[in-house]
Design a protein that fits this description.
The protein is α/β, with parallel strands linked by helices. It is 34% helix and 18% strand. It has helices at residues 30-39, 101-113, 130-140, 150-154, 156-167, 184-190, 203-230; strands at 2-5, 8-11, 16-20, 23-28, 47-50, 57-58, 92-95, 118-120, 143-148, 172-176, 194-197. It is globular and about 55 Å long.
Length: 255
């Protein structure tokens, strides 16, 4: 797909490199850049490069980047409630918009105190492995929990995480922090899934309901694992086909 801006023809599928804290990272797609701007991981003042640039430019100068939407960039001084869980035991993946951190972190503290293993984005630094780290955490979780708000539904990152969890048929719990209108695509996919409207409940009622729901999901997951282990069979061996290698020209940004 091509994008035309001020006499410049820009390929929307072009690979974009970033320079953050003096380190070159990438390449990424334009949608990745937009999502990180909305989430507050990068700023319009950070530098970027893609094929066709004579030198590094500001992220805000990339064709297709809307500086007005990027005003959501914030650097939070909030103290993280605890370290995200890393391990092999069943855990809950939490998806949220960074602008909702003050409220979400309070909810996470309560779940942590109740004994739940929680993986959440602690502010992973953008790097070439960043999308893979998020994806691995979604794929490995036993329950996917998302805090819904207008900022969350507007976030490309949140939508990507939600869609991956739904594609993988993860047990899914949506907690609505406030009254929000879901985009048509999310409304179609999330319409019949478990949801708790936090803003309509007392703190006590909400806490009991969300913890009960998560425990039911985790119990079902554990039972499913036991059944799966009892049905393990010897895998069928298949022959691997040899592939041919090609010499591909690699395009690199300037130092």
């Amino acid at each position: 797909m091509l994008y035309f801006e001020e006499g410049f023809l820009f390929d929307m599928g072009v690979e974009i490199f970033l320079k953050l804290n003096g380190e070159q990272v990438g390449p990424y797609q334009l949608d990745d850049i937009k999502g990180w701007l909305e989430a507050g991981h990068i700023s319009v003042d950070d530098t970027a490069w893609f094929e066709g640039c004579s030198d590094w430019i500001e992220v805000g100068e990339i064709p297709g980047v809307d500086r007005k939407k990027a005003k959501t960039y914030v650097k939070s001084d909030l103290v993280l409630p605890f370290e995200a869980y890393i391990g092999e035991d069943p855990y809950v993946f939490v998806c949220y918009a960074h602008k909702d951190s003050p409220l979400v972190f309070e909810e996470l503290k309560e779940l942590d105190n109740a004994g739940f293993r929680i993986w959440y984005d602690e502010g992973i630094g953008v790097s070439s492995e960043w999308p893979e780290e998020i994806a691995k955490a979604v794929l490995g979780c036993s329950v996917f929990m998302v805090f819904i708000s207008p900022d969350a539904t507007a976030s490309i990152n949140c939508r990507n995480e939600i869609n991956l969890a739904l594609d993988e048929k993860k047990p899914f719990l949506a907690v609505h922090l406030e009254e929000s209108i879901l985009p048509p695509g999310l409304r179609l996919r999330m319409g019949d899934l478990q949801a708790i409207h936090r803003y309509k409940l007392s703190q006590e009622h909400y806490s009991k309901k969300v913890q009960k729901t998560l425990r039911l999901f985790l119990d079902d997951h554990s039972q499913g694992q036991e059944i799966a282990r009892s049905k393990i069979v010897e895998p069928v061996k298949t022959r691997r086909r040899k592939g041919s290698s090609q010499n591909l020209k690699e395009t690199k940004p300037p130092k």
